[in-house]
């Protein structure tokens, strides 16, 4: 990891470096992705199945594309009971957390004869993308399906890539079944996004697509936005640990490595006021890297996007932390709650020595689908809000409209919208 002292140039250079990881920087792939989307949109199942065979080596038919109840039951036989138990425990925490986010319709009536309100309606259908292939992510299944269920979405369609034998990762199926999906299809990649966005003979179009994926999935989601809604364009994982001399270097090193192991584009940053801590963290990292299974990926991640930033004061450390706006932020200082009040930009904030980032990934209950690449400055974690829509409710009686109708007409005429003014005025003609 590069060790740098914080100044204006350091901040600018780091932000530019991190932005290289954004899906918006991968324009070379957009043509390939668009070709896949166009083919599936035009040919439906034929295009979808052809790309599944090409990329996943799996031949599908309308009869085999959807996961059956028998396949779900078989998945339970392949997953350890202990993992099923953990999935169920995590599910309870995630559901309870998101139930506190639930919103309700409201109406405000006044004695003058006006009623204003807001009608909250769940989306009718949602598509959830779950990565497959070399790694299984049952935690992502829970994080994407649970808030949709809590919001009241009736149709939750999950897509995930099959292996060459047409089978889906068993742990993924178990998590989806426990979370409450309604349909699971054995398709992945940009072709799966196309199927969800446009519909095919086997897969109905949905209203919104959520869930992480590779660069092809991210660019496909970006391209279909407008035909459907999406959650966000997710970039590689990232963590920032803001720490002072009270932090345990072994804990900090372990937490930084927990995100660096995701892939070579992942980012791990330590911002600290303590040179001694910085040195201790580096030593602990080297020890861990001799034993961790993904050490080669971790080393490349740290070489490319790993930093230790030394700040003169805690206020300087907080300022650069807000500028970076990390997906995951750990605050390990003498008074983390006080520091937290000064944080404006972060996807999820973990406080203290025993609130490590994987706690949020798997079990605490908060959502781990978070804004990346600095978008925490204006985006939030995935939540129940992402699966509802709000309609304004307006009612005025004649008696309520009478004293203000001329004001409305004046406003409309000022904008030269005489038909607007007239639609109010006709109600008060002699």
The parts where pLDDT drops under 50 for at least 5 residues are none
The spatial strand order of the largest sheet comes to 1-11-10-9-12-13
Biggest beta sheet summary: 6 strands, parallel
Oligomer: single chain
Structural class: alpha/beta
Find the count of extended strands (DSSP E, 2+ residues).
14
Radius of gyration: 25 Å
The termini sit apart by 80 Å
Q: How much of the polypeptide forms β-strand, as a percent range?
A: 15-25%
Which range best describes the helical content: under 10%, 10-25%, 25-40%, 40-55%, 55-70% or over 70%? 40-55%
Give the rounded overall mean pLDDT: 94
Number of helices: 18
Shape: globular
Tag the structure with descriptive keywords.
alpha/beta, 6-stranded parallel beta sheet, 430 residues, 5-stranded parallel beta sheet
Report on the structure:
There is one protein chain. The protein is α/β, with parallel strands linked by helices. The protein is 45% helix and 16% strand. The protein contains 18 helices and 14 strands. It has helices at residues 8-19, 30-43, 45-56, 69-78, 81-99, 138-151, 170-179, 189-198, 215-224, 249-260, 275-289, 295-305, 314-324, 336-340, 357-362, 398-401, 405-414, 418-425, and strands at residues 2-5, 106-109, 114-122, 125-129, 155-159, 183-185, 208-210, 229-230, 238-243, 267-272, 306-310, 328-332, 348-351, 388-396. It has a 6-stranded parallel β-sheet, sandwiched between helices. A 5-stranded parallel β-sheet has the order 6-5-4-7-8, with helices on both faces. Strand 2 (106-109) and strand 3 form a beta hairpin. Helix 10 packs across helix 11. The protein is globular. The chain starts with a strand and ends in a 5-residue tail after the last helix. The mean pLDDT is 94.
């Amino acid at each position: 990891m590069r060790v740098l002292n914080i100044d204006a140039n350091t901040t600018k250079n780091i932000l530019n470096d991190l932005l290289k990881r954004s899906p918006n920087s991968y324009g070379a792939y957009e043509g390939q992705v668009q070709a896949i989307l166009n083919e599936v949109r035009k040919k439906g199942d034929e295009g979808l199945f052809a790309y599944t065979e090409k990329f996943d080596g799996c031949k599908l038919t309308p009869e085999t594309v959807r996961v059956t109840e028998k396949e779900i039951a078989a998945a339970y036989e392949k997953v350890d009971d202990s993992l099923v138990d953990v999935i169920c425990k995590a599910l309870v925490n995630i559901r309870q957390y998101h139930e506190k986010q639930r919103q309700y319709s409201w109406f405000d009536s006044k004695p003058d004869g006006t009623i204003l309100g807001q009608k909250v309606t769940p989306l009718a259908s949602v598509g959830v993308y779950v990565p497959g292939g070399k790694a299984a992510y049952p935690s992502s299944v829970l994080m994407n399906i649970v808030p949709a269920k809590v919001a009241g979405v009736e149709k939750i369609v999950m897509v995930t890539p099959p292996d060459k034998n047409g089978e889906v990762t068993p742990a993924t199926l178990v998590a989806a079944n426990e979370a409450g999906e309604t349909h699971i299809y054995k398709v992945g990649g940009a072709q799966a996004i196309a199927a969800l966005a446009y519909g095919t003979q086997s897969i109905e179009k949905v209203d919104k697509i959520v869930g992480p994926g590779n660069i092809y999935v991210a660019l496909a989601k970006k391209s279909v936005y407008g035909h459907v809604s999406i959650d966000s364009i997710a970039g590689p994982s990232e963590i920032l640990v803001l720490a002072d001399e009270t932090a345990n270097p072994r804990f900090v090193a372990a937490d930084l490595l927990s995100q660096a192991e995701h892939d070579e584009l992942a980012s791990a940053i330590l911002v600290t006021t303590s040179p001694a801590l910085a040195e201790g963290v580096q030593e602990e990292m080297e020890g861990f890297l001799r034993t961790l299974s993904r050490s080669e990926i971790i080393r490349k991640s740290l070489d490319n996007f790993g930093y230790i930033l030394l700040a003169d004061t805690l206020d300087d450390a907080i300022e650069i932390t807000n500028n970076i706006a990390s997906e995951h932020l750990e605050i390990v200082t003498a008074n983390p709650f006080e520091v937290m009040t000064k944080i404006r930009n972060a996807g999820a904030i973990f406080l203290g020595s025993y609130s490590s980032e994987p706690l949020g990934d798997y079990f605490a209950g908060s959502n781990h689908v978070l804004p990346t690449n600095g978008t925490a400055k204006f985006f939030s974690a995935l939540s129940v809000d992402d699966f509802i829509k709000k309609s304004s409710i307006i009612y005025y009686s004649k008696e309520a409209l009478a004293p203000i109708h001329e004001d409305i007409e004046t406003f409309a005429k000022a904008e030269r919208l005489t038909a607007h003014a007239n639609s109010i005025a006709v109600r008060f003609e002699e």
